[in-house]
Amino acid sequence: METFNTNIFPKGEKAPEAYFSGGTAWVHILKPNEDDLNCQIGNVIFEPGCRNNWHSHGGGQILIVTSGTGFYQEKGKPAQVLHPGDVVNILPGIIHWHGASADSEFTHIAINPNTQNGIVEWMEPVSDEEYNNL
């Protein structure tokens, strides 16, 4: 199992278990959604095998992968393998999930722009069958 200790930000708080499965994730908010910039930025660390539920963002989302190996998948499309340096642009309303591979921690910076259109709408968990069939 690969582990990385290259995070420049604090680990943060445990992410809500209701929205993550397969392990634990931690979120450290770098830029709260509290001003006229209409943007929230967080650093998210996933344990191996951890992923978030299917969800969408009313204002879209940008992921910047900083360490480990992970996945990003849009509903009805094949999953993409993610590595450090990858950037994923997610359009508003696209149903998707992201998380760590089974054998690697995974860290990304999540940028939620246009928060005046909503930050996140959570849906059902990614099933073990969906995850294991990647």
Automatic annotation (TrEMBL):
Stretches that traverse the bilayer: none
InterPro entries registered for this protein in UniProt: Cupin_2, HNL-like_cupin, RmlC-like_jellyroll, RmlC_Cupin_sf
Domain Cupin type-2: 44-105
SUPFAM superfamilies, per the entry: RmlC-like cupins (SSF51182)
Signal peptide: none
Superkingdom in the source lineage: Bacteria
Pfam families given in the database record: Cupin_2
Protein name: Quercetin dioxygenase-like cupin family protein
